[in-house]
Amino acid sequence: MSKNAPSKSGSPDPLLVIVAALLLLAALSTLYFAGQGPAKSLVSEPPARPRPVIQDETRVIVVTKEVATGAVAEGSVKPADTKAPEAKPTEAKPAEPKAAEAVVAAAPVVKASADGKIHGKVVLKGTPPPEKPIGAAKSDAFCGKSYPDAAPTSRNYVVGADGGLRYAVVRVVNAPAGSGTPGESPLIDQKGCMYEPYVSATMAGQKFKVQNSDTFLHNVNASAAKKNPGFNFSQAAGQVNEKSFDNGEMWVKMICNVHPWMAGYVCVVESAFFAVTNEKGEFSLPDGLPPGKYKLQVDHLKAGTATADIEVAAGKGAEVIFELAVK
């Protein structure tokens, strides 16, 4: 009988049983490990590092240029500064100009005069600022005909060649009210759309005249008076009006509402002993001041005031030189 022939008893071959058992064990093992998931060694493995990105060299150059010029392209990231900004040198401040020293006027010089008169001169010390042109007067259809060349100017400081100051009012401030005989009635004219003279003086209660020498309408407005009733009236070409102020008041302003740059001043003095300086700065008071000691005062719209003590006696007067300073 052959060795490989099945036994007659019908029992299985031991070799086949062993092979079947191994196959079953392998199948069971596979099912068991599939239910447990991936191996721990694979889960804990660190992820792979990304590949380094190499920037485009041309792009880097462009961005660098844009950053240098302060104009980073929209959407690009401005690289951090690699070095601290350089400190700007401190510019030296220019020295501030020194303030102009104030001009100080000297004390009045008083001398006795043998003619019994009170006279003298008002001098301006310092250089006054330039007067301003009144362009509106030149550009006006009517007023401009009086100024074919240059426009008229303001008259803050009208100074003669030797420093004589015009339009200063000199008066005896402690003379008896109403004393003295007033001189000729002052005339205030409107000519070339300007008040002439710029400054006038009158005695309280004395009549003065206002005239329109232009060929067109003006109005005379003195409603700014504080110690006297004011007035405001229109004045046709060639018209003359007579007015007066009853109370002492310095610098009553008169204007023209038709031509707003027009302005003039009237000083009302309580006695007749006053004068307005001429183009040379000279003045001379009327005669008749009784003997005694007095205070002589000069007033100017811009340069201010100064006083001097004088004495009047029989045949004895005073010559006074006033000095006012630019302010």
Task: Report on the architecture of this protein.
The structure is a single chain. The chain is of the alpha+beta class. It has helices at 14-35, 40-43, 57-69, 135-139; strands spanning 109-113, 118-125, 169-172, 187-191, 194-196, 199-203, 208-212, 218-221, 232-235, 240-243, 249-255, 263-269, 274-276, 282-284, 292-300, 304-312, 317-325. The strands form five sheets. Strands 1-17-2-14 form a four-stranded mixed sheet, with no helix packed on it. A hairpin with a 3-residue loop joins strand 15 (292-300) and strand 16 (304-312). The termini are far apart.
Write the layout of secondary structure elements.
Blueprint (H helix, E strand, L loop, with lengths): L13 H22 L4 H4 L13 H13 L39 E5 L4 E8 L9 H5 L29 E4 L14 E5 L2 E3 L2 E5 L4 E5 L5 E4 L10 E4 L4 E4 L5 E7 L7 E7 L4 E3 L5 E3 L7 E9 L3 E9 L4 E9 L2
Parallel strand pairs: 2-17, 4-7, 6-12
Antiparallel strand pairs: 1-17, 2-14, 3-13, 3-15, 4-5, 7-10, 8-9, 11-12, 15-16
